[in-house]
Design brief:
- The chain folds into two domains: 100 residues, Rna Polymerase Sigma Factor, Chain: A (Orthogonal Bundle), CATH 1.10.1740; 77 residues, Arc Repressor Mutant, subunit A (Orthogonal Bundle), CATH 1.10.10.10.
- The chain has eight helices and no strands.
- Helix 1 crosses helix 2, helix 2 packs antiparallel against helix 3 and helix 5 packs across helix 8.
- The longest helix has 35 residues.
């Protein structure tokens, strides 16, 4: 049968006695199989501290549910290793969910949402900028879009528009002056403060 060594009881015998509440049988069961259970758990969990906790949980499960072992369904080792493997996998999944929850909480914790009044203000201001941009000449608007939304330098704007650099600068500056006046008329800018 399932002898661990000379003079020792089989795991089946020990499990049946543990099911009856025999503490010495439980100690014998632990002595015979705890190292192999620990080895299995370490391979799954990959953390010695957590593995020790899982092994304790497995042996607690054995103490509480030894009566569920059915010899006709398989060897005691297979049953114990199945319990240990399932518990180890459950722990790994639990740890992964915990890490994911912590990361999600940390992300929410550091995300500072803009107050509603500021969001409304920014939305209105954005709409005003779009309206004011439409009041510019096509040449001014294109020069400003390239410089400020496209991130181009004066030289790059001049090349894109196929004009000289001073002309590109002039269009950008005159466009900005028009934008400033239009924004102030909409209630934004230096005069509104």
């Amino acid at each position: 049968m399932h002898k661990a060594g000379p003079g020792t009881e089989t795991l089946s015998d020990l499990l049946f006695r543990v099911a009856e509440g025999d503490q010495s049988a439980f100690a014998g069961l632990y002595e015979q199989i705890s190292r192999r259970v620990h080895g299995l758990v370490v391979r799954v969990v990959r953390n010695h501290a957590i593995s020790a906790e899982v092994v304790q949980e497995v042996f607690l499960m054995l103490w509480v549910s030894a009566d569920r072992y059915k010899a006709e369904l398989g060897s005691p080792e297979a049953w114990i290793f199945t319990l240990a493997h399932r518990r180890a996998v459950d722990r790994v999944r639990s740890e992964q969910r915990s890490v994911a929850r912590d990361a999600q909480y940390a992300q929410k914790e550091y995300f500072v949402q803009e107050p509603v009044d500021e969001r409304v203000h920014h939305t209105l201001m954005s709409e005003s900028v779009k309206r004011c941009l439409s009041s510019l000449t096509d040449l001014q608007a294109e020069a400003i879009r390239l410089a400020y939304y496209g991130g181009l330098t004066y030289t790059e704007v001049a090349e894109a528009l196929q004009v000289k650099v001073p002309t590109a600068k002039s269009r950008i500056q005159s466009g900005l002056a028009c934008l400033r006046n239009a924004m102030e008329a909409d209630g934004y800018g230096a005069r509104s403060r």
